[in-house]
Amino acid sequence: MNLRAPVTLLDVAQRAGVSVATASRVLNGGDRVPRPELQERVKAAADELGYTPNAQAQALAKSSTNVVGILVHDIEDPYFAAIANGVMRAADERNLLVMMASTFRDSDREIAYLSSLRAQRARAAVMIGSRRTDAGSLARTANEVESFLNSGAGLALVSQSGMPAHTVEPDNRSGSADLARELVRLGYRKFAVLGGPETLATARDRRDGFIAGLAEAGLEAIAVETGEFTRDGGYAAAEQLLDRNADVDCLFAVNDVMAVGAMSALRARGVDVPGKLGIAGFDDIATLRDVWPGLTTVRLPLEQMGRRALELAIEGGEPTTETFKAEVVLRESTAILRG
């Protein structure tokens, strides 16, 4: 007797050329309805293969809660807090409840939280972080992302490209390159970069974009100091630079909190900003309103990024990537021109 293996949802998804999550939404139901053309493809594939929807799966797909999860690398960081605030405001407008957790940049903790949200039948989740470069952790995270989506929930990531889900990306490279051009235009010529950890692609993209912008003017960074992606990391990196007596006239820190830490280190050493040394950051966090001299930086629409991430997670559908442009903001920390 020739017994044919039962047709699975994966078979239908592969025949239709869509994700398993999309096939599930079409055949098992759910809140996020895919585009009409995708629905037609999935239904046609199911008919061709003789697929019969699983009644239990249909019931589960319709039983998700009104809970949205936010997983953030570090809620104390104003950058992440601003994005999370955008997610929370957008969720509140839709009468959704929010559960939020800090992962402290631990990929295993991030995976565990996402798995927990899946078990609780969360309607959607937004993961906010700085893209990592470790292949092992990326693979483990991608597997859990697939499982989360296959459960019928929606998902979007902020600053974490490369995952099989909706992604909101800041234009880090172009923004830092634009900043380099503006600082050269102001007259600065001898630059140092306060970079973050090599394992964070966000920090590397900003560093590399800035260096590329300098190269257009025939310049190179005199020094690159690595440090933690934090205020204390910026303080320590600036101290290391000062200890080396590097001949520089402007510092670029790859995020604002590092720049604020660097400004504190310079003040402690009696270095006048911007009289002796200019300094610039990246993000334009709200904390800068209380910093003097005002910090030159690259502005990102952080709350808008969070709002859009929540919208994409709720809408579902095939994964897309949306890039948000960055804008250079010149302030007093680079106010004195160099000849």
TrEMBL record:
SUPFAM superfamilies: lambda repressor-like DNA-binding domains, Periplasmic binding protein-like I. Pfam families: LacI, Peripla_BP_1. This is LacI family transcriptional regulator. It comes from Kribbella jejuensis. InterPro entries: HTH_LacI, Lambda_DNA-bd_dom_sf, Peripla_BP/Lac1_sug-bd_dom, Peripla_BP_I. Keywords: DNA-binding, Transcription, Transcription regulation. GO terms for molecular function: DNA-binding transcription factor activity; transcription cis-regulatory region binding. The keyword DNA-binding applies. Gene3D superfamilies: 3.40.50.2300, lambda repressor-like DNA-binding domains. The keyword DNA-binding applies. Residues 7-62 form the HTH lacI-type domain.
